[in-house]
Each structure stands twice: as structure tokens, then as C-alpha cells.
Amino acid sequence: MKMKINDILGQFEIKGVIYKITTLGEGFINDTYTITTCGNSPDYLLQKKNKSVFPDIPGMMSNIEKVTAHIKKKLKARNDDPYKGTLTIIKTKKGSKSYFQDPDGNFWTVCLLIPDAVSYNIVDDAKLAYKGGTGIGDFQQMLSDFDLPLDETIKGFHNIIFKLREWDKCLKDDPAGRISECKKEIDWIEKYRNNMTEFYKDVENGKIPRRITHNDTKISNILFDKNNNILGMVDLDTVMRAPAFNDFGDAIRTYASTAAEDEPDISKIALDMNMYKAFTKGYLKYMNKTLTSSEKQSLPFSVLYITYEQALRFLMDYINGDTYYKTKYEKHNLVRAHSQTALFKSIEEHFHEMENVVFS
Ligand code: GN1
Ligand code: MG
Q1: Which ligand is nearest to the Cα of residue 218, counting in written order?
Q2: CATH number, domain at 239?
Q3: 133 and 232 part of one domain
Q4: Whose C-alpha lies nearest to ligand 1, atom 13?
Q5: Rounded distance, CA 110 to CA 294, Å?
Q6: Which residue's CA is the closest to the ligand 1 atom numbered 11?
Q7: 204 close to 161: Cβ distance less than 8 angstroms
Q8: Residues 60 and 170 grouped into a single domain
Q9: Which of 22, 171, 218, 301 could form a disulfide with 254 if both were Cys (CB 3.0 to 4.6 A apart)?
Q10: Any domain includes 119
């Protein structure tokens, strides 16, 4: 029995009368709807969380509740608006839960829609990149004294050793019969395998600590107000304990790319050093004193690392028959993988310059 959206919303502590429900098409993973209410009542964001990507949605929501409570405390202490600077989870009427499970087993969540917020898919303004850097640095900084346990809600997320094990299985199984058309791309992944696993070993041996990180810091996951001041980080589904460089690398992958993640014309894709410089300056404004020297040293390489991992994830999803990311056309994941390899090449070309920026 498929429940109607209105009946699902009826399970939550929502104020006001619903006036409009619109589908929001941006996310690659969850189904998202904007809920507009009449008059002055708040608006909301309803999400059907992706069960196959997130095997433990109660654990994920418990992570989000803990982390947003901590951030709200910090925001209040400095007189910032706790309802604008982070997510506000709306509870269910029955049992005051942060999610509702429908009779089909789907998990639904609701949070407040932050009014007048803007987000971007690409950045071509260094001031915006700088602000994005401050937003992510501030997020990590506010959570640097968070000491509650968090669940690992996606096993091995951003752990390349783990991902390459999945990759090996995918190559062995060839589930969609697409391997023969991806020879060039597969060779590319294999060429960098050792460099990437070597880099991750410093996380495994403890040289690089795990902090509370967002883990999905692409540009569209941060909100700005209409004057382009930072509001806060959204899409907290992947908040977990992980190396700080995840957030830096994943942010640069989108903030400093000259084109969108799925640009088919790879000649348009490059790393824009002005955006990199501006973002890094913003990020280090908050995190410079907190990071250890090993963590700081890991930042430039993390951009290669996360871009490589993203290329691998898109390509692996293509080979698996497009089962993870939402796609809009047949070769969408392959196009995304090509865009990431093109970006990687440009990052390599700028690598020494990138190191100089972090240590200047
Ligand atoms: C997914 O949820 P969304 O669209 O912000 C993905 C990220 C990828 C990103 C690529 C849980 O993020 O890891 O970097 O797509 N999230 C998950 O655009 O896999
Ligand atoms: Mg997400």
C-alpha cells in the first residue's frame, strides 16, 4: 500500500496548512520535496531516505540529532540564529521520532526549510569560494569538541581501501556487461591504486586523526542567504567520524572545478586556482590552529584522493548498471566519471602550487 505524501506529512508535528508540495530534483540519492504552507507558518523539506544507500536510517538520524543539537548550542552562544545555521529536525507525533517508517518500510524525515536560502552547483566567484571555506571550517571547528559516539552509517565511506575491495568485486562480476567498453577507464583507476591506498594508510595507522566531518561538502550542500553570507551546512546524512581532509578534498572538487560534475565536454573542466586559494584561506581561518601538521600536509593530496574516489564511484556505478546514483540518461555515470578524471588531471598539473598555498 503506497501512502500519500499528505498522509505521510500528517505523521509529523507540522504547523500550518499545506498549500503546495514540489519535488526538488537535485540530490543524487534521496527523494526530496519542498512543502509550502499557507501564511506565516514555516515551510518544510520532506525526504524519503534511500534505504539501499543508508542501511541504518535510525542510526543516521540519531547522528544528525546529536550533531545539530551541538551546533545549535554553539550558534546560540554566539548569538547566531540556531534555526538558520543548521538543520532543525521535525519529530513525529507518535513517539516523537526523527523519522517515520511507512507500511512499505520506507523511511521519511522532515526538517524546517530555511527561508530565503540559496545554493549553487558551481562557483565562479572567489568571494563565494572563500565564504564556502569559512562555512566548512566553522562546521568542523564547532564540532571539534563533540565527544559523543556516532554510528558509522555507511561502512567504509571515503575509505579507498574499502572502496577498492568493492571495485575488485564489481570487475569480477561485471553485473551489467559493461566492462568491455570501459577498458581505458579501468586502466586509469588501476594506475593510481597504490598512490591512493598509501595515502589512506595514515588514517588507518592513526597519524591522521578522525574528527566529526560532513563528508559530502559539494558546493550544493551549503546554504547562503540572499546577500551571499553563509547560513550553514545541510544534507547531514553522512556526518560521521572521519579525517578532516574528506571535507576539504570534496569541497575543492566542486568549488574549484570550472564546470559541473556531469559536464560532458571535458575541455571545459579544470581546477581554478583562484577558487582553490580563496576556499583554502576561508577554511584555514577556522581550522589552521586546530589541525595537526600531518592533517595540514594531507590537504592538497586529499583533493586528488577524493576526486579519484569520486571517479571510481561513478565508474563503478556505471559498471554495476546504475544502481547507486540517480541518473538522467543512459551514460550519465560514465560522463560523470570522465569529468572527474579530467579534473584529476588538472589538479595534478597544479599540485605544487596547491601545496604552496596551504603552507604560505
Ligand atoms: C551524493 O546526496 P548528494 O547528492 O549530496 C553522494 C556523495 C557524492 C555526491 C556526488 C551518500 O551526494 O558522496 O559525492 O553524490 N552521497 C552519498 O555528487 O553517497
Ligand atoms: Mg547527500
Answers
A1: 1
A2: 3.90.1200.10
A3: yes
A4: 216
A5: 39
A6: 238
A7: yes
A8: no
A9: 218
A10: no
Residues with CB under 6 A from ligand 1: 27-29, 53, 216, 218, 221, 235, 237-238, 261, 310
Give residue 64 CA to ligand 2 midpoint distance, Å.
13
In this structure, is residue 229 part of a structural domain? yes
Residue 52 lies in a domain: yes
Let me know if residue 121 belongs to a domain: no
Specify whether 328 is located in the same domain as 223.
Answer: yes
Is residue 192 domain-shared with residue 260, that is, in the same domain?
yes
> How much distance in Å is there from the Cα of 151 to the middle of ligand 1?
18
76: CATH:
3.30.200.20
Domain boundary among 112, 138, 159: 112
Query: Where would I find the H helices in the chain?
Result: 5-9, 57-77, 126-142, 160-173, 183-204, 245-255, 273-287, 293-319, 332-349, 351-359
Nearest ligand to the CA of 217 is 1
Q: Which residues surround ligand 2, an ion (CB under 5 A)?
A: 216, 235
Cα separation, 357 vs 12, whole angstroms: 48
User: Domain check: are 102 and 135 in the same one?
Assistant: no
Q: Which ligand is nearest to the CA of 50?
A: 1
Given 112, 138, 170, which residue is the final one in a domain? 112
Please count the structural domains in the chain.
Answer: 2
Residues 212, 210: Cα–Cα separation, whole Å: 7
The pTM (predicted TM-score) of the whole model is: 0.96
* Grid cell locating 203: 588514517
Per-residue pLDDT tens digits of the chain, which is 360 residues long? 688 999 999 999 999 999 999 998 767 899 999 999 999 999 999 999 999 999 999 999 999 999 999 999 999 999 999 999 999 999 999 999 999 999 999 999 999 999 999 999 888 899 999 999 999 999 999 999 999 999 999 999 999 999 999 999 999 999 999 999 999 999 999 999 999 999 999 999 999 999 999 999 999 999 999 999 999 999 999 999 999 999 999 999 999 999 999 999 999 999 999 999 999 999 999 999 999 999 999 999 999 999 999 999 999 999 999 999 999 999 999 999 999 999 999 999 999 999 999 998
CA 41 to chain centre: 29
Domain containing 179: what range? Answer: 126-358
Nearest of 238, 222, 254 to residue 117 by alpha carbon: 222
Q: How far does the centroid of ligand 1 lie from the alpha carbon of residue 29, in Å?
A: 7
